[in-house]
Structures are given as C-alpha cells and as structure tokens.
Specification:
About 35% of the residues lie in helices and about 15% in strands. With about 350 residues, it is an alpha/beta fold. The strands form 2 sheets. A 7-stranded mixed sheet has the order 1-3-2-4-5-6-12, sandwiched between helices. β9, α8 and β10 (about 260-265) form a beta-alpha-beta unit. α1 crosses α6 and α2 packs across α9. The longest helix has 17 residues, at about 190-205. The protein starts with a helix and ends in a 17-residue tail after the last helix.
Length: about 350
C-alpha cells in the first residue's frame, strides 16, 4: 500500500480529470412517497410511558433506498422496542429550524437532524430547549469550538470516506476502460470527502484510471442523476458510483440500461440490480440512531462522535453473486486496506474542500 503522500500525489493528478457541477441550491422538495404527504409530521403509536421519545427529521425521502431509508429503519427499530417515535421527511434547508422547534416544543427527548445541513440550525435552536437532546448526523460546522458545544447537542463526523476508499479499490481493480463515473448530491463536506476517498481508493490500486465526478446539487432528482451517469457512460465509464440518494437511483437506472457496473450507497443496493451492483459503501445509520438513545440512557450523550471502518459503522457491502467479477487480487487489496485502516497503519485523508479547488 502506498504511503499517504504518494496516494495524495496520485489523487491530485486524477482529480485533474474530474468535472464538477457545483451547486449551492437547496435540495428540491420532492413529492413525498409516504403518508407524510398528507401530514408532514408523522407519529407512531405511543410506546411505554417511561421511554425516551424520539423524532427524526430527514432531508429527503424515506424511500430513497439509502441515507434516509437507513435512518428511518433505525427509528422503526426503536418503535418495535416500545419507544414513541415521530418523523418528518423531505425537509428543505429553509424549513429545518421550524421543524426542530416544532418537535422541541412537543418535548421530544431526542431530535435527530439527519445530515450536515442540520448543524447550524440545531446550534441556534438547542440552547432554547436545554432538556431536549439534539443529534446531528454530520460534521460540526466550521468555526465552532467543540469545547463550547451545548451539553444537549451531539454531532457525528462519520468517516464514511474510509468506506468510500474501499469501494474505490473495487472500482479501480475491476474497470477495463480505466474510466469511472461518480455521481454526488449536494456540495457538503460528507459528499466531497466521500468522493475524494473514493478517488484515493481507485488511485491506490490503479493509478492509470480516471474518475469523472459530478456534484448534481440535489439528492431528490433521479432524472438529473440519470442524465449525469449517461454522460459519463458516453465518455467510456464502465463503472458508475453514486452517493446521491434518490438522485442516485437515476444513475443506477442509467447504468442498468447500458449494462454498466454500479457501486451503491447508503444501503446494500445489490438487490436493486443483482447482476450489476458490485458493492455499496454504507454508514449504519439505523445503528447510529439507536445508539443515541443508549447514550442518553447511559448519560454519555453529547459532543463529537467520529465513527468509521474501525467501529463497524462504515463499511462496504458483500459482493453477493458478483464475486467472480472481482479479481482475487482486488478482494485481497480491499481486505488489506480495511485491516490497515482498523489498525491505524493506513489513514485515509479527509478532504472536505471543493475538489476542483485542489486542481493546480
């Protein structure tokens, strides 16, 4: 395995090939695909009276097959255990603060804002409700002093980019054309670091491969994802990786239409296209949501939590029936990198800046 400096040197040369369509627009509010269309806030039947009440606020659809669906599964697991739960999906950035206030006013014990975009609104709302616990599934906003975080606020700066790195090894080892496409959602730290981690993984096993990435500016537009993936396939990409939730579903469809291999995101997406999804890189959002309840019950809630591959929170899915499409040397490289990440011998650099700013 190359040293970090060598990898970064290769990454910078590969990133010369990446074309990013950056966008600062808020994610579009797609029509809800659930009962939430009739009632934005959905409450499940009350659980045991003494249990913590949990509310989950999702930036996208709970039916996106990835980031949001995974967190919703965790909420439903809590409901099955007798907790009272509620959720709101498809919350646009401008409505986040109102959603937080609504649940806090109803005295929910834990409110989970599922994404980086919830950070600043949470820090504005939380001090008004010291008896309510707020958790953000994302990086602490720049410039915020960790030592000054309110005691009732927790953040998760997950090292999802480590799993993206492992997925990049798979892509770099399988590609025949040495052209790989990547479809991202919003231009936020987790998305940019995932893309950079993926490119680093590709570079570690195949320095001749080029990754062409697009930040679509939305998690909720399958048509845009399909259009972007088609453009990459027309350029010769024989593998498409997506980390764009519902937008990524369009990318998967484009790849399926052309018989191109896919790397999924957010959940094991092999069942969507069993003959084409090589693997998926995943954060166990279901476990993340449940763990916050445990931390509250144990009195350890709050501060910054930084789980990654070593914690079992971030990982790549099994290869399923596509074992034969992945050379044994590539599988071995993935396992070697995973072991070194866990031991600390390999540190995947976290790159949170816009990638195109790193082009000389």
């Amino acid at each position: 395995m190359k040293t970090t400096n060598a990898i970064l040197a290769i990454v910078l040369s590969l990133l010369m090939a990446i074309s990013i369509v950056g966008c600062t627009a808020q994610p579009a509010q797609a029509p809800a695909q659930s009962q939430a269309e009739a009632a934005p806030e959905q409450e499940a039947p009350a659980g045991d009276s003494g249990k913590i009440r949990v509310a989950l606020i999702l930036p996208g659809s709970l039916n996106d097959g990835g980031w949001n669906a995974n967190a919703y599964a965790g909420l439903m697991s809590l409901q099955d255990k007798g907790y009272e739960v509620a959720f709101t999906e498809n919350v646009v950035i401008s409505a986040i603060e109102e959603a937080l206030n609504n649940y806090a006013a109803k005295e929910y014990d834990l409110i989970v804002g599922h994404g980086f975009e919830f950070g600043e609104p949470t820090l504005r709302v939380a001090p008004q409700y010291p008896d309510v616990n707020f958790f953000v599934s994302g990086k602490v906003p720049d410039g915020v002093d960790l030592n000054a975080l309110p005691a009732n606020v927790g953040f998760m700066d997950m090292k999802e980019y480590e799993a993206a790195y492992l997925a990049g090894i798979v892509a770099g080892g399988v590609t025949k054309t040495n052209i790989i496409g990547y479809i991202a959602g919003l231009e936020i730290p987790s998305q940019l670091s995932d893309m950079a981690g993926f490119v680093q993984g590709v570079a570690s096993i195949n320095p001749d491969a080029k990754v062409y990435g697009v930040v679509t500016g939305t998690f909720e537009d399958p048509a845009k994802g399909q259009e972007a993936a088609n453009a990459q396939i027309d350029m010769g990409a024989d593998i498409i990786c997506q980390s764009a939730d519902s937008t990524g579903m369009g990318a998967i469809q484009a790849a399926a239409d052309k018989g191109v291999y896919i790397i999924g995101y957010g959940s094991d997406q092999n069942e969507i296209q069993p003959d084409l999804v090589l693997t998926s890189f995943i954060t166990k959002n279901s476990e993340v949501v449940e763990k916050q309840v445990t931390r509250i019950e144990e009195g350890t809630f709050g501060g910054l939590w930084e789980p990654g591959v070593a914690d079992g929170i971030c990982y790549i899915a099994p290869y399923h029936g596509l074992e034969g499409a992945i050379p044994d040397t590539v599988k071995a490289a993935v396992e070697d990198a995973k072991a070194k990440i866990i031991s600390g011998e390999l540190v995947v650099p976290a790159i949170y800046d816009r990638i195109d700013e790193k082009i000389g």
